[in-house]
## 1
Amino acid sequence: MLTRREFAAVAAGAPLALAAAKLNSTVHGVLIGCQSYSFRDRPLDEAIKAIAEVGLSECELYMGHVEPKQARGPEGREQLRRWRTTVSLDEFKAIRKKFDAAGIDLYAYNYSFRDDMDDAELERGFEFAKALGAKCITASSTLSTAKRLAPIADRHKIPVGMHGHSNVKDPNEFAKPESFAQAMALSPYFRVNLDVGHFFAAGYDPVKYLEEHHDQIVTLHLKDRKKDQGANQPFGQGDTPLKEVLQLLKAKKYRIPANIEYEYKGEDSLAEVKKCYAYCREALA
């Protein structure tokens, strides 16, 4: 006998073995998930299969897995704008069904609000997130765009986690603790998507920031970079205090998804994300 969820999964096209699987990647109280950017080398359906094969039960969906590839030049940019403002929300609802069928919680939608977006494109990001059933949006954005975005976020009442990189020279980019604070002062719905690798490579302590601002963080990105703007490394081979971050989540019982974002050079993304997950499980043992 199939459960109702399993029957719905099979009806949605999932293999029976996959539909029947009950994924749970919570390790000692810490939810380990995946930024689907980790599987940027394959289309959405294959990425979902890979996430399920790793055994991860939560996902932050990368916009590149949803949007059509943008052609070069102004014409390509206009085509993408037209797609964003006219695409049926049913396409996003169908994507949610695919994740549900695979037993994966689509927790967040990564839609990066950028300076070249018009107001309609900004607005649509929230409509996409709602259609996906996502609990929040994560965004590689800028302070200038955040100022335009604030009233839209207030109207939709959906949290937006600003994603930080390590470019501390550009005051318009999110990298420093002060830049996150500037954004959060603009709207009660602005939060932080803390990339612990980038934050550390920029010269800051992700453990301290997590402990002090955990209630303002929607998701974590897990990666291991060398200090002083160093390169991405396999988990455990860089300088980022990944284990300490994971242990803090465990000790304090912070309910913040910790999403693997595979970016270092490896031969196969599926094999590498499996290694990343194994590292996390060991670090939390």
Note: The first strand starts at residue 26 and ends at 27.
## 2
Amino acid sequence: MRSGEGSESGAGRPARPGAGGVVSRPGLFWRLGASGRVTVVSAAPGSGKTVLLRSWIAEAGLAERAAWVPVARGEGDPQRFWLAVLGALRRTAPGSGLVRELTAAPDLDGWAIVERLLKDLAPLEDRLWLMVDDVHELGSAEALQQLELLLMRAPDELRFVLATRHDVRLGLHRLRLEGELTEIRADDLRFSLGEARELFQGAGVELPEPALVLLHERTEGWAAGLRLAVLSLAGHPDPERFAAEFSGSERTVAEYLLAEVLERQSEGVRLLLLRTSVLERVSGPLADALTGGSDGERVLQDLEEANAFVVALDARRFWFRCHHLFADLLQLELRRTAPDQVTALHQVAAEWFAGHGFPVEAIRHAQAAQDWGLAVRLLGDHWPGLQLGGQAATVHAILAGFPGQAAEADAELAGLVAADELAQGSLETAERYLGLAARGSASVPAGRRGQVQVLLGVVRLLLARQRGNRPAVAEEAQQLQAVAEAPEAAQSGLGEELRGLVLISLGITEYWTAQLDDAERHLEQGIALARRIGRPFLEFTGLAYLAAVTVFRSSYARAAERSRQAVELARRHGWTDEPTAAIAYVVPATGLAWQGRLEEAEAWIQRAERTIRPEAEPTTGFGVQYVRGLIELARGRDHEAVASFRAAERLAGRLAAPQYLVARTRALLVHALVRLGETERAEQALAGFSDQDRDRGEIRIAIAVLRLAQGDPLAAAAVLAPVLESAAPVTVRTWLAHPFMLEAIARDALGDPAAAGRAIECALDGVEPDHVLFPFLIYPAPRLLERHARECARHAAIVSEILGLLPAEPGGDGKMASARLRGAVEETARLIEPLSQSEIRVLRYLPTNLSAREIARELSVSLNTVRTHMRHLFAKLGVHRRSEAVVGARALGLLAPSPRAP
């Protein structure tokens, strides 16, 4: 009996399998039961073909209606084969009364047997299954032709199941075209993780989940591999260690693969398999380079067709690989039989991969051959492309393959290690290796010295960018720009890549230092260049930061769209966990927090927090902590807000120059401290600023918050005056709502309701385009807002929404005030003219947070069409703003009521 297959050599009918160790596979059982006239089960040895068919026969209750015919190894006698078929059919219930007995005779012809069998079965009325196991062993071409004849002419109720290790010549293409052929192949037979778990549990083997997952990955779901593991694990003292070490060199697996696969191959095929076992993937030309032959491609394709544990990796069938366990066995055999060839084989592979444009594999084989000089040169040559291609993790893994102290003696390798340490977030270690490389650069061969200098320049640029050091970035950018314009750089294509890196690095640093005009210009140029030269990682980085710039220079909707593009690019290329992705996640978190949509903001900021390493990425970490503080402040979780703003300030201390966010962070920190009643700590926080810094708009706002808390509205109004008059401007236009709301509170406290009303009107004017609610959440004044809405209906809809979000005031109720305001708008709502169907479709999207462009995309129309419909909507509803249109439409029953409506 073969391990894992259980093929029988004598009995004509399979025995009913026992319950232990047999896994029910209902999906495959269903396919077998619903199959056409012929079913082919084709897969490598040990894939579970025989076990599957036996289990299905038992499960479906077909023992009396299934004729089982095992083909003996190397069967070349058609007469013996057909007599076995007749005997098996006669032992079934339907066939016993139809198929006549026949005995062997020297002149008995296989064709005559088939004709007789067709005549006997012509009256067949009940379903009968003829199951031929190991069809590949049928070595007689004549017998195969006779079997094909039977397949074509058999009565409808006779169904065939053919189990084979590889496809045989039976003319099955005709059945395939007629839809009468069902094919179950290796991929279908692989055990899923759940089926592997059931197999182990059925055998009474308890295996921890991580060990089970590892074992399933190593065996690739191969049935025999899993069953052999079950046998080896019985009574094993350390199952987890066994799973970690399980391979094709494990004795029972090795014996099986040697006997069933390797020893069945010709000498030339064995040589190819052994020599190419040093590779993770192999092509025909590469196999020829390692064997000195010329037919590698044909041999690999034949092995795949024969299900000999060789798998094609692409549709063209150019690249192949061996099953993991088979590869383990081949490597063991190579080391046992030809250990002196291993190094030379790796060297040949390194040269071939390098010459055919596969640098990563070339480097790994150079390392395996311990040709460290070649490995360093190859990595140095291809590092820019790997870095700009978003393959920092690949570079990190490659560098781990060098000896521990190698970088101490090789300046180029030291530079590469510096770049890797920077990518991993170890800024201080990166600086140390950068210094080591600079000191040793004189020892670099003259032919490579220029290339090493470019490497060190790029690392210095990236390090300065990480620290937000704009002068250093500008200096390195200027030097790299000169390199990029050199003829040799242009010829190699490196020039444009360096220019793209320089532009985006400048833009990022300018963003962190509040040079927003320059940042936008450089980022847009860098993104355009990245797209032109086909560098999606550069494009992704630029888009993420351009979205961040757009938050402060344009609308939240446009920033969100750019962020969406960056996230989509990251998802497409597998970069969603890259530190740069944190910036793309922070942008929607910022916009949503300012709009008061805190639950949605929370989801985005959590993604950013999972991605970023704050100490390694101080600039990005600073931004993440700042937005976390915004969200906590809007929620009223003031202790958590203080912690976040403090963390942001600590990260700012690691940066080369003060960042423009620092003043805003300190301003919001003061506000959180004031809300906690810690006015003394708030004063101390403000005391750290110079007179020049205290004159910044954001700091003046913080001082006003503190003065109001101290009961001095007059001092608050005085400190706000330069901000309101633009003499002390704020960085972001939406921040203007802060001083106006504080001005309204101060003027109301001073007994000047008219001035308070004017200030609230200015605050609402500033925030309505982007629907910014944050200032009204952290400076809650529901009484003032309600009074203002009664006196001026221009902003009634947004005021209603704000009041619906605010907690109740002592002696009042924000939600009740919101309801009263909605009622005022609803009372005046009327439809001047009926809406068209197109206008109604647009109206349904107005309560959402989609921009007009996004609505156009949803409706598959142009942006101009949506804008035209919106203008018509506003005119017919007699309103001027989107929020007012929503309130009016709800009052008229054109839209469902707001979920926040009482």
Note: The radius of gyration is 38 Å.
## 3
Amino acid sequence: MTPASPRHSSDSASSDPARRSGNAGEASVLRFKGIDAAILALLLGFALLLIVRTGSANGQELWPMVDAIEYAATAVNLDRGLGPVLHFGGYSYPCRYTIGYPLILAAAYPLLGRRPERLCLVTALTALIAIAGLYILTLWAFERPSAILAGLLLATSPHFIGISTCVLSDVPALAVVVLAVLAFLYAEEKESLVASALCGLLTGLAVTIRVTNGAILAGMLAAVLLVRPRRLGFAPVMAFAIGLAAFPGLQAWVNLHYFGSIFSNGYVFWRPEFYSSFFAPFKLSYLFVPWDPVYQHGNLLSYALPMLGIDGILGQLTLSTEARTLAHARYAFYPFPVVVFAGLGVFFAIRRKGNASTMRAMYLGFGFLAPLLLIYLFYLYVDPRFLLPALFIVFAAAGYGLVSANRRLKWGWAGFAVIALDVVLAGAIVVETVSRLATPPPPLRKLVVDVLAIRPRLTNAVVVSNISLQWLELIADGKRTEFVGLNSLIAPEMLADFHLHWLYDKRSAGWSGPIPPTLLPNGKLDVAEARKLAEEDKNGRPVYLLLLARATREYFAEVKPEFAQLDRYFTYEKIALYPEVGLYRLKAR
């Protein structure tokens, strides 16, 4: 057996009075050397290669709907001075999401040339920050070999890499959480008020990226109370509280301004049928029966399978956003051996009563993951990516467990089991990585390119389209173009206008707010809107019909009768046909 390093040896544990009494030892000192910079550069370069090979088609198209469109639109409208809102069809509406991630996107937006299709680069950058932060955290709490393995496991995680190319908040939330944990460890071990305030600020940002990230407070409290020496002084707590209040305070003001209550939110506005009260989106039945048939399993299996690393075996990889980000993956986050090694890492750390840094990281990480999982087990929507911000501790513990188990390798069934797990883990990572590198990235869809090519023609025109109005406002630049919805139907595989559909649902339920003009609301011709468009054409203003070619036969079969009604008002002139869209001129009869 290879001797344990002095830092974690059982001899030192038995001779340390603090450890004999059940307390953690002294905190470790972070020693980031030149070799760590070189290793980290290699890890980040490798991760960047995998991100590039994944392709940017999803990010440029602002997929998945409706999430990416809302994040991008809120960021763009913040930059334009409209506030954290959606804006389409001449009206502004609140966003469903909290402001943390849109604020990050808005800050970077000018640096991206104010091109919405480039916002996915911000997510890719935060992915690299998350890997770097995890490496430093694991180096601090454990040691260099563990840090290398933790960084490698995260860098090769299929779902992590996949959504790093999308305009989604999960990867940025992970990056901010890891930075908050680093600030927490520094604040605890150096008793630094500045670090305490920074930790609070980052934690508050994580909460406003996604409210459920507030579960990290439970982990922080556990790390403070369960690891000695306990440092819960008045000044550090106040510094943390002041920093913590900044971003949630801003979110409270936004909620009060747009909804009239600090406790309300955009989900209550857009989906009142599911969010009529605080507990409305939570049900015990979701554990076993999903609320929507699109999900293959209830929440218990939907989260248990990817967390155990066996989701690919039962076909769970077609779930929700994973359908495109994990097109060739065999598991979502990690293969099964990672879970075993993470458990061994926890076991070795607890058995040795490791140093204070190790135990604080452990209590904080798992104290965050457990309540976060508990929340989502009963929640309406289900997607394993919701757990990503707390999974940093699984990767870190797995790196430590892998190193510790192999250092203590002995002949016998336990030794053979460790070797078998090593082989399975290495094989799974190699196969997954080679598959991603060998498979050409998905072709860049022509939709954005096509719409950008059409955009100059749309200046000062009226455009009727079956594409999401909010998406068109972003990509086709709605400043000088008036967009009119074709209909409020939702069709698969389209950039359908969910927002328009939800607004008409709200109107049918008695809501009296404004709705953007729509030619075929609920599939029925709006005669007044048709006459208005005909008058626009007669007055010399071009009126175009922009159709997404990706629509299904069923969709066209459903709207064909309504197009027949349009013949009473317009003739059609083909202007341009592109791979993804077709542009037609509507001329009044």
Note: The longest helix spans residues 234-259.
## 4
Amino acid sequence: MRILERSVYVGPSLYARFPVIRLDLELGALEEWPTARLGERFIAALSQALPGLAEHGCSYRAPGGFLRRMREGEGTWLGHVLEHVAIELQNIAGEEVTFGKTRSINGAAGRYTVVYEYAQRDEGIAAGELGLRLLLSLLPAELRPRDSVPAGWDWSEARDQFIRFAQRRALGPSTHSLVRAAETRGIPWLRLNDQSLVQLGHGKYQQRIQATVTGRTPHIAVELASDKEETNRILAGLGLPVPQQEMVQSEGQAVRGAHRVGFPVVVKPYNGNHGRGISIRLTTDEEVAHAFTVAREHSRSVIVESFLEGDDHRLLVVNGQLVAATRRTPGHVVGDGEHTVAELIDVVNLDPRRGVGHEKVLTRLELDAQAQKMLARAELTAQSVPAKGQAVYLRSTANLSTGGTATDVTDIIHPDNREMAERAVVAIGLDVGGVDFLSKNIAESYRQIGGGICEVNAAPGFRMHVAPSEGTARDVAVPVIEMLFPPGSSARVPIAAVTGTNGKTTTARMLAHITKMAGYTPGLTSTDGVYIDGQRTVSGDMTGPVSARMVLADPKIDIAVLETARGGLLRAGMGVNEVDVGAVLNVQPDHLGLKGIDTLEQLAAVKRIVVEVATDCAVLNADDPLVLKMSGYTEAKHICYVTMNPQHALVREHVRAGGRACALEAGVNGQMITLYDKASHIPLLWTHLIPATLEGRAIHNVQNAMFAAAMAFSLGVKLDPIRQGLRTFDSTFFQAPGRMNVFSEHPFKVLLDYGHNAHAVGAMADVAQRLDVTGKRIVVVAGPGDRRDEDLVAIARAVAGRFDHYICRRDDGLRDRAPDEVPRIQAEALRAAGVAEQAISIIPDEQAAIGAALEMGQPGDLVLIFADQLTRSWKQITKFRPAGAPPAPAAVAPAPPALLGDMTGEGGARASEVALAALNVEGLIRDERGVHLAPEAED
């Protein structure tokens, strides 16, 4: 039994709408050994190792259901068992995960897909690996693969190591409570590192926390809270109760300081935390000297202060208001006159509320060096038998992380003590602060019975308040979230996601451009990078979950447009749990045969994820049957159909029912993009006014513009910015690289496109047919090497019979193909389609193929180039010089003397004419739509 492949999904995927791990598991010979055949001994051993499996309901949906499944009939297979074990291992580490499913892989005997939920990536992976080792260790020796379990491997030790491993990577109790409070408010969050740095909210609305320090916590306040001496001085200056203290640097100073403040004393690190290095109730010079050495291990400077009698209390103040008060008791056992201290510790640790570290509400007691020291101070050992009722303390401080307990006293705290805590935290300047206060009775005023503030803590822990050992739990995270996000304030930015086989990059860019015209600061992910407010910040294919989170983490953006590709969805899922608007443009044959996706229906299921997570509107192509069916899978409030057919029966009924749609309608002046919503008919824009459509000839870009308009409208963008955005978005290389880029500065026209499947290539071939061409049509065609042979053939057929000459090439990346394999397959397909042999050239190298096409071009010709390396290809096109053409112009020379001087009158008009003439020579004049006006071709 072994794991062949693992995928970690960070968001919605084919398997779930939340993070899951998928294992490709091979059982091998164990396929013949379901649990019933392995027998009761195996089942009992597994139940003993993981008692919590008894609570798993499995398909019976009741406690005990999984164990019942293992025993009944022939039982279940070990892939299914591993699923439950991986879930239970995370449960014992303190995570609340429950989901899992296991399925056999069709046509592969003994192979299973095992899917299970995870809370944190590394822990989830480790749970699968440890679960596999546990199952192997429980198998009969004759079934256990050699070396699968190391000699001397101990399950209990491995389990505890896993729990500690998980807790080192998990959000701490305080951060976890804040994240849960944010989720309750519907506030999204992103974990920014492996510790406790978390972003709450998106884009410009974000707030950050690190544990319980917020982005609004003043740095100077944290510094003051860390400076115990300065804190003591400030609070004393305000008349608040604090002990007398001195800061010392040596053992001798510590002893002398103890005499000055008066015994008993407390010795503690100057800037320590979590109770580390603190010694209390010291009464002799020797104890002070030893305590100084202990404290010096945690801080260069040490504080000696007077010891205050009373119980240790933590008073939590948020935004100037006390929200919780807890009495803390150091870890201890209570004698019964029969058991030893060591035995009493074991009894206390049987409490199911106690676990390793922060795994549970309470932490296990440890009989370690510090506990031994406390016992020695009480003249006891681990083998001593304390008298009945005798409290034996194992720690001098009451921190929960060292086994202490907490009792909520919020309801009984005296108003004077409440006010004192609030004044102390405000005085230091903290928005969230914890006051350590010693008092014999928190219900009585410190003014009457004494008491004092030991310190004020920045980043106070919430665990003792949200899960006290006794008393009422206080949801102290809620006031923090309300402070950061007052009721009614924004936390989310609008998110639009678009997917489809073709057109998604152009549509996403159009939509981002429209939102910018509307005054937004968009963040865009696309196949060529991440763009923030129109500026590319990261280059590369950025259509997966990493780039989505990158955009949402940017503090500048206030709207996000996410191009979402098949590859990212299959590899790691979506980067967000939900989007406001999700659109699917089309589902066409591409990438089939890769990553288990072999049919169009399977590909549609992948792309459907985008609309499954849409909350407000799903924008669907009503002209694509596979996309149209997705309407039954979305829970969005609205469905907006996009159709090029104004007679579409379903869309017509949808519109009559008050639904939303975007249709292409014929009019006197051409074709009009029209919106429908709530029985309103909204003419938007003539298609010939959209530069990217080449005056309406590029039908695929007409459809892309319709989707961009429908998505923008569904995001709440007003009509005028939608019109303005579409009128100012063109298909230049700089605005939409590789998307029908036109170069008209040669005697012939060149079209550059990234089309790499039959549908996209066919759409560009249609454009080539619609353009007015007086000469020949030449095409450079190719296909990615990882596509199936039938896909490469389909690409060739998409251009066959439409051009006068065909140049077949390959991409730079061979992807396990022979150097000339792809062009030869496509050349053969062209011949089979009736293309004459003399009209076909095989030039495998991309640059050589493009160069040959450009050299072949004559005045009036059209050269359509399907490119892979877009920037390199565009530079090759623009720098090409036809035979007999003048060389490229050098740097701009100074103006001749005849044009120097005052150019604001008649001379200025003449200068304008000269400048325009010069520009026209280079073909740089643009019309009002921003389209290049090429120089006239020679007769």
Note: The first strand starts at residue 2 and ends at 9.
